[in-house]
Structures are given as structure tokens and as C-alpha cells.
Amino acid sequence: MDELKTLIKELEHEPPHSLARQRLRLTQEAAAGPRDRRWGRLLPFSGQTRLGRPFLSGRRLAVGAAVAAAVAAGVAVPSLVGTAKPAYALTKNQDGSINLKVYDFRDPEQVEEELGEWGVEADITYLPLGKRCGNVRAPFVKGDDAGAVSYQAIRPQNGITIYPRHIKQGQIAMIEVMESSVTPSAARPGVAWQFMGRLTTGPIQPCEVVADRSADHIGDATPPPGS
Amino acid sequence: MVTDTSPVVVDSEIIARSLDDPETFAALFDRYAGTLYRYISFRLGPELAEDLVGETFLIAFRRRDAYDVSYRDARPWLLGIATKLITGHRRTEVSRYRALERQSPAQPVEGPEEAITRELTAQGSRTVLLNALALLSRGDRDVLLLVAWSDMTYEEAARALGIPVGTVKSRLNRARRKVRHTLGGVNPLEEHGHG
């Protein structure tokens, strides 16, 4: 493989010092570690590894994949929820991405409608923190077993950021937002809301709400100093 | 924060420890962030590489409970996640190869005639290789570049990409055949003991 390897060497770049920023992203995420254990237990490393294990039925695999795709965009957001603001704000960024900030948990249909006007078909569900959808509501898009496809389209950046260029024709951005009834404060740190998002081609079934007891364990996700 | 990068502690052990002590996972970043950056940067360029290194580790972190600790080396796992992220930018990748292909090769202005000929031949095959990479299907390119870049075995590549070993072999053979064809019968991709 000499010529190809020579070419690869030419095209490679040395890691910059600024890569430390990505380490910071990871360690900040690690600070909210306990909630990840909950999801991670259900996730297959890859279809190949777990498919080889006979005790996993197809149904369990399907559930595992469901969570894998959902958690790709999952994040706990330790921000404050105001009451005097509008319910949400949608902003289109220069790179074509759409930023969604939720201030108050009402009007999911309105969010869907406005996103639709910008060419994004969305299905948004609001739930109280401590609840989640217990059913696999919709089929998965091809190749999304690692959640990487959905992560491209729906990212936990600056609230929720949707990248329409990563949403193909016929795909729906399915987003579930879980809101805390208690507004976090410096005295009572906690999670204001969290969300999970993934792409699907539909149809989307109604959410079968179940208790999410582990949501109680994420109350230490405090904002970083200075925020 | 634990940042034990001692090779005595295997990757799977770091992942296992990170279940109870999540910040331990940063040790994997310290081991492999540079490796992943080089891999992503040669395929997509430096502009996207940094962010995708971060995303690779975030996805890995969120899925660490499901890691099969019988595999001590986490590199195939991380490179597999990175490859899937790269797939989402395949247009950027193809455009990059096309742009590099269009760049005029730097030709030596003086020197022994033999050296000049050698240089021009190398530049010519570089252009042909870039063209071949741009023409490959997504799946074939992923397997070819992952194996060529990392010297993974077929089994490791299969595990990394979540596809059967047989598919890795067939994609690799097809990719090599196509590249060989575009190079006019010269095969720069001879197999060296993989699998």
C-alpha cells in the first residue's frame, strides 16, 4: 500500500493545540456521568458485536438501537427557564442551521409549524422531567445504529441546533423535550430540561409515557463556573 | 481528574473504570485524540477535523457501557465512530480529493534527469489516486482508507464499521481492483498480510 500510504501521509495534518477544547467538551459531559450509565447499558457497541450474542432477541436489539439513536442528541441543559419570555425562539444561522431555544414549555405545534416553514418536518413532544416515552415510536433511518446520523442533524448546541442539510427528503426530526417543574438556581442546582432527538422516516406513534426514575439522578448537572 | 495514559492500563480497563468514574474516560482522549485527528484530517481536511474528534469522543463516552471489554484495544471502536461521522460529510470528502487533484504538481526545475522523471511519475500517480478515491463508493472508500491508514485486520475493520468480515473483504477487493484499474494496471495497494 505504499503509494496510497504516501498520499495519506501527505494529506494528514498534525493535531493542533486547540484540540484541548474538545477535551474540555468531553470532561464537561463526563461531569454529568451518572445519567449516561442509564442509557449506555442498553446500547450495543455495534451490530456486529452484539448480534453475535444469542441471548439478545431482535426486540431487545431494536430497543437498544432506539436508545442509541435517541441519546446521540441527548443532553441535560442546566439553564434557567424564564416566565416573561416567549415560549421559544427559532433563529436561522448563517451556515443554514436552525437554533431552537425553549423558554417555556407550551406550543409544540407552533414550533413544528415554524420549522415546517423553514423546510424541516419536525415532531415535538413535551414531557415533564422524570417521564419519558417508553415505546419505540418510529423506525430508524439507515445507518443510525450509532446515532451518528441523527447527531449530525439534531445537536445539543446552544439549546437545540438543527442542521437541515443533514436531513434528507422524507425524514422527520423527532424531538422529545423533558421539562423540570422546578426552576434550577444557584441554591438548588439541577436540570431545567433535557431533550432527545433523532431522525426518522415515520410514521411516528404517540408517546407512551413511562416513569424515568433515573432523571432524579441528574440533579448535579450544574452550569459551568461563570455561566 | 484521572489522566493515566500508561500503556500498562489497557483501553478496556479505562472504559470499565469510567463507568464509576466518568472523568477517567478523558485518558482515552489523551491516547487517541491525535490519532483520530490525523485520520479525520486526511479525509476531510483540518477545518472539520477538530470538531469531529470532539463528537467522536462524546458519542463514545455516551455508549461506553455497551463496550465489549474483551476487546482491549479501543482504537477500532473510536475509528469506527469517526468513520460514521465522516460518512455524513462525504460530499466534503469528495470535493477535497477533487480540489487536491486539480492542484498543479510542484515540478522540480533542476536536478538529475532521473530524479525529475521519478518526481513526475509520483505526482502523476498521486493525481490518479485522488481521482480513484473520489470515484469509489462510500462503503468501499471507508473500508479501503480505514484499513490502509490504520493497518487494521479484517476482523477489526468489521467490528469498527459494524459490518460482516466478508463484506469488509469484498469491499476491499473491489476498491483495490478499481484503484488498480485507474492506475492502468499498476497496483499500489497490494495486500500485506491483513486478515
Q: Could you name the key traits of this structure?
A:
heterodimer; A: 227 residues; alpha+beta; 4-stranded mixed sheet; 4-stranded antiparallel sheet; 10 strands; disordered C terminus; B: 195 residues; mainly alpha; Rna Polymerase Sigma Factor, Chain: A; 9 helices; globular; disordered N terminus
Structure, explained:
The complex is a heterodimer of chains A (227) and B (195). Chain A is 28% helix and 21% strand. Chain A is α+β, with helices and mostly antiparallel strands and 227 residues long. Chain A has one domain. In chain A, the strands form 3 sheets. A 4-stranded mixed sheet of chain A has the order 1-9-8-4. In chain A, strands 2-3-7-6 form a 4-stranded antiparallel sheet. In chain A, strands 5-10 form a two-stranded antiparallel sheet. Chain A is globular, with a radius of gyration of 19 Å. Chain B is an all-alpha fold. In chain B, helix 2 (26-44) runs antiparallel to helix 3 (46-62) and helix 7 (138-150) packs across helix 9 (165-182). The longest helix of chain B is centred in the middle third of the chain and has 23 residues, at 113-135. Residues 1-6 and 191-195 of chain B have low confidence and may be disordered. At the A-B interface, helix 1, helix 2, helix 3, helix 4 and helix 5 of A face helix 2, helix 3, helix 4, helix 6 and helix 7 of B. Chain A: Keywords: Membrane, Transmembrane, Transmembrane helix. Chain A: The chain crosses the membrane at residues 61-81. Chain B: Pfam families: Sigma70_r2, Sigma70_r4_2.
CATH superfamily of the domain at 1-88 in chain B: RNA polymerase sigma factor, region 2, helix turn helix motif
Query: What ranges of chain B have pLDDT less than 50 throughout 5 or more consecutive residues?
Result: 1-6, 191-195
Q: What is the string of SSEs of chain A from the N terminus onward?
A: HHHHHEEEHEEHEEEEE
Shape of chain B: globular
Total strand count of chain B, please? 0
N/C terminus separation of chain B: 38 Å
Which runs of chain A of at least 5 residues are low in confidence (pLDDT < 50)?
A: 33-84, 216-227
> Could you name the CATH class of the domain at 1-88 in chain B?
Mainly Alpha
Helicity range of the residues of chain A?
A: 25-40%
Number of strands of chain A: 10
Query: What count of structural domains of chain A?
Result: 1
Instruction: Indicate the proportion of strand residues of chain A.
Output: 15-25%
CATH architectural group of the domain at 1-88 in chain B:
Orthogonal Bundle
Number of distinct helices of chain B? 9
Helical residues, percent of chain B: 55-70%
